[in-house]
Records
---
Amino acid sequence: MSGYTLEFEKSKKKGIAGTHFSVDVNKDQPHRNLSDILDIIKKSRLSDSVKEMSQTIFRRLAEAEAKIHDTTTEKIHFHEVGAVDSIVDIVGAVIGLEMLGVQKVQSSRLHMGSGTVQCAHGTLPVPAPATLELLKDVPVYSTGIQSELVTPTGAAILTTISKHFGEMPSMQIQKTGYGLGSRELEIPNFLRITLGVSQKGVESDTVQVLETNIDDMNPQFYDYIMETLFSKGALDVFMTPIIMKKNRPGVVLSVLASPEKVSELSNVIFQETTTLGIRVSEIKKRKVLSREIQSVETEWGAVRVKVRSIPGMKKVCSPEYDDCKKIAEEQGIPIQVVYQTAKQKGENQSS
């Protein structure tokens, strides 16, 4: 791919020093569809991981545009979205992550802006329709600034590479960089990226609580509903017995979820229960222990253990019940023997 030049310039926004990066493109660039762009990436000399992630981002972008325009991805002609500068933006972002050795990306809530924007389809409201389609289940906000602060390209990149949107995670900061925009806004127009090493111990995050009261459903269904909610990404599911109107016994179904999962989990509750409404509230800060899943070898086979890191204390291991149950049934030995053996081996392995 040719017909463009890259420029880097040191500058300042609201007194903050950073780097302004621009892509200058020849005006006679052809319009490209998804296949054209994927073929350019495929034939490049980039690593397989960069190719795969870049193609995934463009596919999501094409799917969003196709849905908005009620057509197929192959009939989408990428104008400003698929121009050379956006190809450079998307592929360049993925290359940067690989060069930095980034293993996990987390983002703040996204500041959307407001007003209108000019594009190939005319004047559109901010956020652009494709941007909103890509940002489903992502926490966003606007302070009324009359400018497009999240583009479809930016939304496609962030929602593909970022696993969480919210507060900054617990980490040891190594480096911070500022990429400056070209427009002058009421706020500093830059993107700040912080590179760090994840810290073990107590972390904070923001979660949503979904609750509903149920008193007219077959209680045998609760087991299936809980399994379904967990399979769709619920952080926790529990039920509390209550007495409802006319002294009818019922339960409060409570679901803890990350903000981006609220919509999908709400649909599960509506589809699988008899409820007519769901209460959604936000827990501003939740303290959680750092944990990881490891596998330990026992004389009867492998058992997964959940390892929790408690600051100032040795690591605590909790064997997976299902693994212990399976071994106990197959070997004909007490489950508590399997559990204690796996727990001891896990703590020895983690110490």
---
Amino acid sequence: MSVDYDKLVHEYETSLVTKLRGHGAGSLFDLWVPDSDPARGILNMVEAAWAAGQQELEIHVSAATLDEAGLARMRALVTEIGSVSIIRDGDRYVIGASGSSSGPRPRGHSKEPSVHHAAQARHSTPASTAGRDILWEVHPELEPVLVAETSVFKKEGSLEASRDGILARAQSNEGSLAFEALRDTGAIISARHAGAVHPMVRRILELVCRQIEGRTVQDAADHGVIQAIHCLRGGVRSRPVDGVLLPRNAGTAFVRASRLVREACRLFQEQAGTLGHENFFEAPPQEGWTSVNAEERLQRVVSATAIFCKSEGIEPNTLKPVRVEKDIAGRDTRIIIQMSDRIPADRGPEMLRRFERELKASMDPVLQVYLEPWKDLNVLRRL
């Protein structure tokens, strides 16, 4: 079926003035609503057509309506749910969109982009970084860190099950990811990846396998790729995106790797007979922190505090660690700090956050910093 996008948009906007309801441009597009962004408007048109049972759609749109940046966004959006082809015909584009024989794919399950599009997408920065607008395979600021972190592939290869656990292996055109996890706790013993065709997906799966070992299967499904991104975030000076850095705005390669991880987790749950999605996992402190006694832990924090105060250009006793407390899981991870009143109130919170980041980076990533509350000196008010 062939349609003229510009004509249908004009008819829709005209009908808003002359009709009370039913502004769709024909029964096939009853569910269609144009968008101020033509790329999204075309996506809406494709979805409306497929919802009406039309699996093949040819859309004609002028180059003035859809510029090159909009064309790239549109390709990325429609590729998430089906196949798309683009032909330039003078001052117009002819866009072919088709679903699979079993219907369009659910949103977020895209095929591998072409090599030509991948090269364009890696260096394209859309106007927005929200959800589907992302065109890069790996964010340009994360890519060099990813390459450096995966200079050696330690988790690539095959994996065989032992008597202690269940082996789950997910396979797709992206490659394969397998892990062995304990049936009763869901704790992942070991993880491996193999056969990744796309070099960036291969590197991401390498990081994911390193991150999910020791975690539970459900946490791997929820946070495995996010942990891989967090591992890269420390090597980037500026914030790559506005807001929270997630797979959907870190790059399409992260999204594709995430699907493979979640499929492996789903297969494990099927074998183990556990279909719940509760996730109460918290990473434990590392051996370097737990292997020493309480006095030694506090002394390490005191030494780190002195270094931090010097780097901040403040007196050594401005921040004073007083004790290490247990968290809700009973682990000694809460660092209680006294702060001098010489620090202005508006500087205190940000300074504590910087100090916590330094402790996490230099000592253990699960440590938390808390400011000791000042008690009311009036005994009567404390009754």
